[in-house]
Specification:
The complex is a heterodimer of chains A (217) and B (580). By secondary structure, chain A is an alpha/beta fold. Chain A has 2 domains: 132 residues, Rossmann fold, CATH 3.40.50; 70 residues, Arc Repressor Mutant, subunit A. Helix content of chain A is 52%, strand content 12%. Chain A contains 11 helices and 7 strands. A 5-stranded parallel sheet of chain A has the order 2-1-3-4-5, with helices on both faces. A two-stranded parallel sheet of chain A has the order 6-7. In chain A, strand 3, helix 3 and strand 4 form a beta-alpha-beta unit. The radius of gyration of chain A is 17 Å and the shape is globular. The two termini of chain A are 13 Å apart. About 6% of the residues of chain A have low confidence. Chain B is of the alpha/beta class. Chain B has 3 domains: 196 residues; 154 residues, 2-Layer Sandwich (Heat Shock Protein 90); 112 residues, Rossmann fold (3-Layer(aba) Sandwich), CATH 3.40.50. Helix content of chain B is 57%, strand content 12%. In chain B, the strands form 3 sheets. A 5-stranded mixed sheet of chain B has the order 2-4-5-7-6, with helices on one face. Chain B has a 5-stranded parallel sheet with strand order 9-8-10-11-12, sandwiched between helices. Chain B has a two-stranded antiparallel sheet with strand order 1-3. The N terminus of chain B is likely disordered. Classes of the chains: A alpha/beta (217), B alpha/beta (580). Chains A and B meet through helix 1, helix 3, helix 4, helix 5 and helix 6 of A and helix 7, helix 8, strand 1, helix 9 and helix 10 of B.
């Protein structure tokens, strides 16, 4: 698995490297100290995961997220941030992040979060969960990630593909091009997928998928 | 609100103050004085030609009117020096005195009784002028001399009407004495006037000093907040990093002793992080930088999760943990802040309870929900109950063992509850336990879903946004972001180029970074562009969380977003702007 870690603190990157190596010896990790460097690496190599800090010198925050989203459309981006208030989490997901891990998590939670993310699941901090899902039944701790085929058996294979793209934050136009289907067809699939997740938009879909413990790919 | 340090209407110099007083008196005096003049004229009617009386009355009225108009204007007549304005007032006083004194020309033709009344009226005028001139000698004498002096002389020289001359001579003497007495009184009055003026000046000066001391204290407080805001980020960073190393270490194959060490290290680290957060929270609460974001949330979801979070540590101490909350309770609170309150209270309850139970319960109570956190612990002695909400106060920790925390928990709880307007009650009896009750407002179930369903994109199409930032990377990032929203972006690196760009094509909205290169800043940019287009919408973007910048923006009526700018917020702000 190829991971790109974007954080301006070298020591933090070192710690993350150690932690990830402990979790999975097969991880290949590149580091970037700022967003510009990350974008440069992203054009050279295709990563399976980007771990992105929000507070960095230069291009940072949601702008950095948007820029990475733009240039590495295929790669899931998980935000790794010192801030963890529900609004920031929601904004990050809205901007196309596929997960959010607060740096202030206890070591246990940190390990669990990384396990979920490495298994292509979606991790969101619990308070963010409540803020987004207070209308629904109470949100249990996310279960171990399971494949979409198991959790949402009513979806067709094509819809599963669309679901993965939607969660990754790709616009309909891109999905249509990639899956080689008409944009209108994509729209139909997207609404079926959102209905299956009981979500009204992509951001809600990410929260619902995290709650279900959905595994992508 | 800006407050003038000086009492209202106060002036810089004594003379100015005198002019102000004269303008007030000038409005009060004319009517009674003119009535007195009419009375004198009426008494002289038939003894003095009517034409003369009429001419005199016209003269009196003219002088009174001119004096009234001029005195009212004098304090604000800035073209003249204070000395000259005062001279005008003195001249007016003299004219007034002379016209009144002229009435003594009728004196020889009046019978004794009428003379007495005329004298009474003139003496009354002189007495009153002590007050209306604040006893200021030049003003006072200007009136007194032309009235009182001829009066005394006339009484002394005019032939007796009915009696031997001694009564007239005595009256003249008494009047002369009275004049001297009035002079002394005027001196006293003026001294009082000057003293009260000086006291007022001193008071104003004191107020100014107080104000500046207050400003300094506020500035120091703001500096503290700024320091803490940056310290918070800088100190948290290494803690996060240590946390990572701790996690990495715990995952490695370790012998039992090393595992124990790693475990303790992690515990100490968590305690460090918690205590740092507590300290920063207190400072931030005191500095008033916490913003309360209320929304309708399901109470049970939050409480149940907190219950699950704390149940293991309660059970580990052999305590029962009781949980009860209605399933449909929806409350209007700031969730993270509310959670912090409950978490602190639960933490304390478990810490100070050795046997029995800890309970977390919520019950409806007309329009609100009462959340009770109670324990069967050691309780708080009555004498200490007042003090538990103070900072750094801890029961049973005279040796100040820091592993027991800093004693900030309840201080934070109290401040947070105050901030959110939640009432907090405590009842405790030693040996039997403690109960804290929070009363939070319930929200109508209909309002549960907040405005989460903001329109995706669409209405913001073709909006032309001018982005001003000195960092190229941020400009590009903003452009990407705006284009993703369907806007069109023009980029500028400072006020000068922003104005040039705005001249070339009028934008619908200006997004300016607060801090630009050198002396340039976002305020300047917006000001310059508003000179071209006065009603231009503008949003400032700032990396600062300093409260003073926020206030500055608020005063300028500019919305301000903080970096990293939440996409939602930006979208909401932009959605309010209509393309032309």
């Amino acid at each position: 698995m190829k991971i790109l870690l974007v954080d301006d603190h070298a020591l933090f990157r070192e710690g993350m490297k150690l932690l990830l190596r402990g979790l999975d010896a097969g991880i290949e990790m590149d580091e970037a100290g700022d967003c510009t460097r990350a974008l440069e690496l992203g054009t050279r190599k295709r990563y399976d995961l980007v771990l992105l800090d929000l507070r960095m010198p230069g291009l940072n925050g949601l702008d950095a997220l948007a820029a990475c989203r733009e240039s590495m459309a295929e790669t899931p981006i998980v935000v790794l941030s010192g801030e963890d208030d529900p609004q920031t989490v929601h904004a990050a997901i809205d901007r196309g992040a596929m997960g959010f891990i607060p740096k202030s998590s206890t070591p246990d939670v940190l390990v669990r979060a990384m396990r979920i993310v490495l298994a292509r699941g979606i991790f969101l901090p619990l308070p963010a969960f409540d803020a987004a899902s207070h209308g629904a039944q109470n949100a249990p701790r996310p279960p171990e990630p399971a494949a979409a085929e198991v959790l949402l058996p009513e979806l067709t294979t094509r819809q599963m593909d669309v679901l993965r793209c939607v969660i990754l934050g790709k616009p309909n136009k891109v999905i249509a091009r990639e899956l080689d289907i008409a944009e209108n067809t994509v729209k139909v699939h997207v609404s079926a997928v959102l209905r299956a997740l009981n979500a009204r938009n992509r951001t809600e879909a990410v929260y619902e998928a995290a709650k279900l413990g959905l595994r992508l790919g | 609100m800006k407050q003038d340090a000086r009492p209202q209407g106060a002036t810089d110099s004594l003379e100015e103050e005198l002019l102000r007083l004269l303008s007030v008196q000038g409005r009060r005096v004319p009517i009674p004085v003119f009535l007195a003049a009419i009375m004198i004229a009426a008494m002289a009617q038939g003894r003095v030609p009517t034409a003369v009386l009429a001419a005199w009355l016209v003269l009196v009225a003219t002088v009174l009117a001119v004096r009234w108009v001029l005195l009212t204007r004098l304090p604000t007549l800035s073209g003249l020096s204070t000395r000259n304005r005062l001279r005008i007032a003195i001249t007016l006083s003299a004219f007034n005195g002379v016209t009144h004194g002229l009435s003594l020309a009728f004196f020889p033709y009046l019978p004794l009784y009428e003379r007495a009344i005329q004298s009474m009226l003139l003496i009354g005028g002189c007495t009153g002028s002590v007050a209306t001139t604040a006893g200021y000698k030049p003003l006072f004498l200007a009136y007194l001399v032309p009235t009182l002096v001829p009066l005394v002389v006339l009484w002394a020289v005019s032939p007796g009407v009915a009696h031997e001359g001694w009564i007239e001579i005595s009256v003249a003497g008494v009047f002369a004495l009275f004049g001297v007495l009035l002079l002394a009184l005027a001196g006293d009055a003026f001294r009082l006037f000057r003293e009260s003026f000086e006291i007022r000046l001193q008071q104003a000066e004191l107020n100014r000093q107080l104000r500046s001391a207050l400003d300094q204290a506020e500035a120091a407080n703001r500096a503290k907040t700024r320091f803490l805001a940056s310290a918070s980020h800088d100190l948290r960073q290494p803690i996060h990093t240590l946390s990572l190393f701790g996690a990495a270490l715990a995952m490695r194959p370790l012998d039992d002793d090393s595992r124990e060490i790693a475990k303790h290290m992690n515990t100490a680290l968590q305690s460090l992080a918690t205590q740092l957060d507590a300290l920063l929270d207190i400072s931030k609460l005191d500095a008033g930088v916490f913003r309360v974001n209320r929304s309708a949330v399901k109470l049970r979801t939050i409480l149940e999760r907190l219950y699950r979070e704390f149940a293991p540590s309660a059970h580990a101490k052999g305590l029962d943990m009781i949980f009860d909350c209605p399933a449909d309770a929806i409350v209007d609170i700031d969730q993270p802040l509310f959670e912090r309150i409950v978490r602190n209270l639960l933490d304390n309850a478990i810490k100070y309870t050795d046997t029995g139970r800890v309970a977390l319960r919520a019950v409806p109570a007309h329009g609100a929900f009462e959340i009770a956190i109670s324990d069967s612990g050691r309780g708080i002695p009555e004498a200490e109950q007042e003090r538990v909400f103070e900072e750094f106060y801890q029961l049973d920790n005279p040796e100040r063992d820091r592993t027991k925390g800093l004693g900030l928990g309840l201080a934070i709880v109290k401040r947070l509850a105050d901030l959110m307007g939640i009432t907090l009650r405590m009842s405790s009896s030693p040996g039997r336990g403690t109960e804290f009750v929070l009363s939070v407002p319930s929200a109508a179930a209909a309002a549960t879903r907040p405005a989460e369903t903001a329109p995706e994109t669409g209405p913001m199409r073709s909006l032309h946004v001018l982005v001003v930032d000195d960092e190229a990377a941020i400009r590009l990032g903003m452009k990407t972001l705006l284009e993703a929203m369907g806007c069109r972006a023009t980029l500028a690196d400072g006020t000068a180029s922003a104005v040039a760009a705005a001249q070339a094509e009028q934008p619908d909205l200006v997004l300016a970074d607060l801090r630009l290169r050198g002396q340039d800043d976002g305020f300047a940019t917006v000001r310059a562009i508003r000179e071209l287009y006065p009603r231009m919408r503008a949003i400032l973007i700032s990396g600062d969380i300093a409260a003073e910048r926020l206030r500055e923006a608020e005063e300028a009526g500019l919305p301000m977003l903080h970096k990293p700018v939440p996409f939602e917020l930006l979208k909401r702000e932009i959605a309010q702007v209509q393309p032309r």
